[in-house]
C-alpha cells in the first residue's frame, strides 16, 4: 500500500474532522482576502464599500463543505443556493469562493446518490447559462464574451463531474475488494473452526471407543478375578494377565491416536503410529472379549473383500462399541452372537445378546456417546445403524454399509 492509498484510508476514517479543518483553513484565507479585494462592489441593494457582503457570501459558500462527505446532498444544496443568490444580487464577477461550487459538485458526485449527481450537473449548466446572461447584460448585449464564459464554465463543470465519476468508481471498486477480502477471511476462519470441531469430534469418538471398551474388559476381569481369587488362583492370575494385556493395548491405541497430532515424530516413533484396526481385527477383538468370560460366537457369511479406506475402521469400532455395551449393561453371563455377512453390494453386521441391556440402558444417565458415535461413523460411508431391545429380551445392534458391487464372473468361453 503506497502513501496515497494510506492517506485515502486515513481520510475516509477521519472524514468529518478533516473536512472541518480544511473548511476552516480555506475560510481563514479566502474571507479576509475577499474582504480586502472586493470593496466598492455594486450590489443589488447598493454599493458595498467595505466588502463585507462579499466576505459573508464567501463564508456561506465555504462552510457547507464541512458536510461534503458526511451529508453531500445537504452540503451541495447550501453551496448552490448561496452561489445562486450571489449571482442574482451581487456583482457580475467571480470571486475565489465561487470555486467552492466545483468542490460541491465533485463531492456530491462521489459521495452522494446518482440522482443528486445528475441534478447537480444540470444545475451547474443552468447556473452557467444564467451567469452568461448576466455578463451579456452587463456588457450591453454583446454575446461573444457571454458565450465564451458559458462554454468555458460548462466545460469546466463537465470535466469535474467526469473526474468525480472516475473517482467514485475507484472508491466503489476498492470498497468491493475490501468487503470481498473481509468475507473471505471470515469464511476461512469458519472453515478452520469447522475443521477443528470435526477433528475434535473424531478424536472424541476414537477415545471413547478405546477407553470405554478397554475399561469395560478390565472391570469385568477385575470383578471375576476378585471373586475367584480364593477358590481358583489360576483363574485370578489369568484375569490379571488379561487386564495387563488390555491396558497395554489401550495405551498403544491412545499413543497411536494422539501421536498423529504431533509434528515432531521421529523415526523411532514410527512403530507407535501403526495403522488403525480394520475388519480383519474383529476376530482378535472377539478373542479378547472371550478371555473375559463372555460366551461370544462369530458367524461369517459370504466372501470377505477389501473395504474402502476408513470403512474397515468403522466396522471394527461399531463392533467394539456393541461389545462394550454388552459388558456394561447385559448383566451376568450373557450369550453374544456376532454375524458378519458380506453381500454383493452391502456389508451387514449384527451383534445381539440375551442379557438385560435394554433395562440397564434405560436407567443410565443418557449422556454416553456410544450410539451417537456409531450412527455418525456409519453415516460417513452412507450406512445406517439400528439399535434396540429384542422381542423376548436382550439387545441387538445392526449395521449395514453399502459396498461397491462385485461384477458377476463371466462363464468361460466354450472350447
From TrEMBL:
Q: Which SUPFAM superfamilies match?
A: ATPase domain of HSP90 chaperone/DNA topoisomerase II/histidine kinase
**Where is there biased composition of kind Acidic residues?**
406-415
EC code(s) of this entry:
2.7.13.3
Recite the UniProt keywords alphabetically. 4Fe-4S, ATP-binding, Cytoplasm, Iron, Iron-sulfur, Kinase, Membrane, Metal-binding, Nucleotide-binding, Phosphoprotein, Transferase, Transmembrane, Transmembrane helix, Two-component regulatory system
The protein's location, in the record's own words, is: Cytoplasm
Q: Where is this region: Disordered?
A: 385-415
Q: Does the keyword Metal-binding apply?
A: yes
- What cofactors are annotated for this protein? [4Fe-4S] cluster
Question: InterPro entries recorded for this chain?
Answer: DUF7134, HATPase_C_sf, HATPase_dom, His_kinase_dom, Sensor_HK_TwoCompSys, Sig_transdc_His_kin-like_C, Sig_transdc_His_kin_sub3_dim/P
Residue ranges of domain Histidine kinase in the record: 315-405
- Extract the GO molecular function terms from the UniProt entry: kinase activity
Spell out the Gene3D superfamilies in the cross-references: 1.20.5.1930, Histidine kinase-like ATPase, C-terminal domain
Entry superkingdom:
Bacteria
**Pfam families in the cross-refs:** DUF7134, HATPase_c, HisKA_3
Tell me where the transmembrane regions lie.
Answer: 21-37, 43-65, 77-95, 115-136, 143-164
Enzyme class comes to transferase
Can you name this protein? Oxygen sensor histidine kinase NreB
Amino acid at each position: 500500500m503506497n502513501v496515497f492509498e494510506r492517506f485515502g484510508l486515513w481520510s475516509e476514517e477521519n472524514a468529518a474532522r478533516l473536512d472541518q479543518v480544511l473548511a476552516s483553513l480555506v475560510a481563514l484565507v479566502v474571507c479576509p482576502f475577499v474582504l480586502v479585494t472586493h470593496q466598492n462592489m455594486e450590489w443589488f441593494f447598493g454599493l458595498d464599500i467595505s466588502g463585507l457582503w462579499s466576505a459573508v457570501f464567501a463564508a456561506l459558500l465555504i462552510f457547507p463543505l464541512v458536510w461534503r462527505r458526511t451529508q453531500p446532498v445537504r452540503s451541495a444544496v447550501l453551496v448552490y443556493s448561496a452561489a445562486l443568490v450571489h449571482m442574482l444580487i451581487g456583482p457580475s464577477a467571480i470571486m475565489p469562493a465561487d470555486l467552492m461550487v466545483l468542490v460541491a459538485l465533485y463531492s456530491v458526485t462521489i459521495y452522494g446518490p446518482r440522482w443528486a449527481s445528475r441534478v447537480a450537473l444540470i444545475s451547474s449548466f443552468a447556473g452557467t447559462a444564467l451567469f452568461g446572461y448576466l455578463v451579456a447584460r452587463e456588457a450591453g448585449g454583446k454575446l461573444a464574451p457571454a458565450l465564451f464564459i458559458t462554454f468555458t464554465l460548462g466545460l469546466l463543470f463537465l470535466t469535474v463531474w467526469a473526474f468525480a465519476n472516475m473517482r467514485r468508481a475507484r472508491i466503489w471498486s476498492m470498497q468491493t475488494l475490501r468487503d470481498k477480502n473481509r468475507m473471505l477471511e471470515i469464511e476461512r476462519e469458519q472453515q478452520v473452526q469447522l475443521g477443528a470441531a470435526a477433528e475434535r469430534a473424531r478424536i472424541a469418538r476414537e477415545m471413547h471407543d478405546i477407553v470405554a471398551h478397554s475399561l469395560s474388559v478390565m472391570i469385568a476381569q477385575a470383578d471375576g478375578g476378585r471373586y475367584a481369587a480364593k477358590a481358583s488362583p489360576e483363574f485370578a492370575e489369568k484375569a490379571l494377565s488379561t487386564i495387563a494385556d488390555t491396558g497395554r493395548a489401550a495405551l498403544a491405541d491412545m499413543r497411536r491416536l494422539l501421536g498423529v497430532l504431533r509434528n515432531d515424530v521421529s523415526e523411532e516413533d514410527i512403530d507407535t503410529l501403526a495403522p488403525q484396526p480394520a475388519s480383519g481385527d474383529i476376530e482378535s477383538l472377539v478373542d479378547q472379549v472371550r478371555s473375559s468370560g463372555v460366551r461370544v460366537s462369530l458367524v461369517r457369511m459370504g466372501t470377505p473383500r477389501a473395504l474402502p479406506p476408513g470403512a474397515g475402521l468403522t466396522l471394527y469400532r461399531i463392533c467394539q462399541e456393541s461389545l462394550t455395551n454388552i459388558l456394561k449393561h447385559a448383566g451376568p453371563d450373557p450369550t453374544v452372537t456376532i454375524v458378519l455377512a458380506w453381500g454383493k453390494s452391502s456389508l451387514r453386521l449384527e451383534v445381539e445378546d440375551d442379557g438385560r441391556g435394554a433395562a440397564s440402558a434405560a436407567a443410565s444417565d443418557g449422556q454416553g456417546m456410544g450410539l451417537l458415535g456409531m450412527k455418525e461413523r456409519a453415516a460417513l460411508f452412507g450406512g445406517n445403524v439400528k439399535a434396540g431391545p429384542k422381542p423376548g429380551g436382550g439387545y441387538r445392534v445392526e449395521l449395514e454399509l453399502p459396498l461397491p458391487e462385485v461384477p458377476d464372473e463371466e462363464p468361460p468361453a466354450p472350447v
